[in-house]
Design goal:
This protein starts with a helix and ends with a helix. The chain has one domain: 434 Repressor (Amino-terminal Domain) (Orthogonal Bundle), CATH 1.10.260. The protein is built from 6 helices and no strands. By secondary structure, it is mainly alpha-helical. Keywords: DNA-binding. This is DNA-binding transcriptional regulator, XRE-family HTH domain. One of its GO terms (molecular function) is DNA binding. It comes from Chryseobacterium taichungense.
Amino acid sequence: MKDLTFTYAKKALGYRIFELRQKIINPETGKPISQEELGLRTGLVKKTIGELERGNTNPEFETLLVIIRELNVTLQEFFNFDIEAYTKLAEAKK
């Protein structure tokens, strides 16, 4: 059986990526960048970004570093969130 704490942590981390992505505005559209745009900027495919945001995959640390750089936050800022609150937000987003 999967460790639920780990599953919740992945979902919370995914919501954090989603939240930070929403803060980056595409100057051409005036809207937040899409999963596809983040993928293009990081060299990842849209499917990978979606899997990460849904908490369905275990990202390599290097992958997280590339995403963090593109989201224009520090490592400390990226991981500075309330895991319980973000887990609830991720579940509500479904």
